[in-house]
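Supplementary Text 2. Reproducibility record for the structural model of the 414-residue chain.

All settings were left at their defaults, and a single model was retained for analysis rather than an ensemble. We include the record here because the model underlies the residue-level annotations in Supplementary Table 4.
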Amino acid sequence: MIELGLSRVSRLVQQNPLTWKAIHIAGTNGKGSISAYLSHLLSSEGIRCGRFTSPHLIDRWDCITIGERVVKESLFRQIEDQVKLRDQTLGIGASEFELLTATAFEIFNHEQVDVGVVEVGMGGRLDATNILNNVLVSVIAKIGMDHQAFLGSTIEEIAGEKAGILKPGVPCVVDATNESAVIETITKRARDLKIDATFVSPSKVEEQMPPLAQLFHKLDLEPHQQENMCCAVSALRLALSEIRPQTDTFSLLPRLADVKWPGRLENVSLQPLISRTEPILLDGAHNPQSAEVLGKYVDRKLRADSNKVTWVVAASSGKDLAGVFRSIIRPGDNVATAEFGPVDGMPWVAPTNASELAGSIRSIPEIGRVQEFEGELLPAIKWASEVADGQPLVIAGSLYLVSDVHRLLRDVQK
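Retained model, structure tokens:
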């Protein structure tokens, strides 16, 4: 289950003080991409960098990387066993995510990283990652309505929880495209702490970071990708000014074109799982904000040649189904509703029943064919592929669904 708070993880980690500096990233959307950009640029500059994101993609340990490589399973299990033994011996009763966070941090110690790029799990103020005490820069990405049961029912309350990662003496970078209520909340928090806050956005990139603006002209990027790059590059400049002041941050920018972040606007081939030769679009959009981004991308890129899109969708239990799917699924689209499988290390996560999800989808006016698939995912993908008949096919609605697709592909390619 989810248990926010810092007391348990603090007792776990204080046994082994952290030996590295951190870049700490909070937000509802964009955290993973910003983490990937930062990790890639730091590693390519020869700085030993660890990265901790959540959730994992395929295996429980692939949320931890050292120098852009997934940590070895043997090392992960060795450190995890030590952490779990300490938890048991001290009678702490840490949650699964707290155990994972302590494991990641101690792997960073073991691997002698210089910088750890750390993504908040949920919220910020009471998230297990917020025990970090040697932070180079804090980053606040795009904030939206998500996890209201834990973070608050208003955007201001949620922003306040995210801004809880801000610390005295630590500069912060904020995505300035956030709505005004979010900006006001973070500005107040930064003012109270007397820290420098840098607000960045693509609309001001010519003024703030001209070399990044030049890169934007060369790359075909979506608006949210530009926003995330602005945050990452601004944070990198602040971090390097402390640890590698002689480095010209802007000289590293061409390397951003090489960064790939699985499950975000990812085009993949599903052969040999299915006979379809055309790529499918795989995206982990799982809240109204990320779904809106996906919907705009699909409308611009996929509907230009075909008015109809076929979808395979799933959602975590408790999600705002209408808020997610009404911004991406259009009249005439065909939809297979599916369920993702058990999530390793996150037993509290469960999928929305495929029939319940299908009922919500059928309420979309003039919707096309809707078919529910309870249990195994592959039959849903095969049905959707046949219905799409070579036309656009998108799998979306949950990061755990993305994980299952990648797992199916890996298993069939062994």
